Amino acid sequence: MKIIEARGAPNPRRVRIFAAEKGLDIPCEGIDLMAGEHRSDWFEKLNPYGGVPVLVLDDGEALSETVAICRYLEALTPEPALFGREPLEAARIEMWNRRMEFSLFWPVANVFRHTNPRMAALESPQIPEWADVNRERAGRGLRLLNDQLVQSDYVAGGTFTIADITAFVAVGFMKPARMALPEGLGHLARWYDAVKARESVAQAGI
């Protein structure tokens, strides 16, 4: 199998870190989003919605959507369990992963898409006011994440999970979105440095 991705995009980063945590070395094939390669006939046959990453299996079947790909990899390689083991643990991780997506990951992505001039070809029209709304949402998401990390080492509790991957990629993507990390978020900064030091992050090329 192989992963088709755009190297700098945030969702492929999530999958690369997840795969590295599992010890999986999956070949990656890059496409050029700015050149519209995700709208080409061959790519639309794999994912008509045009998003990356796409996991192409050995029999040619293609899986898209980040969490779906990660769940497949989790089923193939259950340890370490990044979606949890017991029902309550799994539900808690799902809850926090969704919170990180809605309160942080997508707001940061929207700031980037609606303010970066290079994204004008992909995001038309760009709406600066929508970027402002999402910048405020991301700020609130960062504060809530910091509050959560007062009481736990990781986003969903005492172990590293997919929720940490989602949040870590979101915070890291603030740099290309030209968003500064607010002051006074010491617990978030401690957590971010700890995740950044993980071997999986280095292996994912982030």
Automatic annotation (TrEMBL):
Q: Which domain of life is it from?
A: Bacteria
Question: Could you confirm whether the keyword Metal-binding appears in this record?
Answer: no
**What one GO molecular function would you report for this record?**
transferase activity
Domain (GST N-terminal) spans 1-81
Tell me which residues make up the GST C-terminal domain: 86-206
Keyword terms, alphabetized? Transferase
PANTHER family in UniProt? GLUTATHIONE S-TRANSFERASE GSTA, GLUTATHIONE S-TRANSFERASE-RELATED
* Protein name (Swiss-Prot/TrEMBL): Glutathione S-transferase
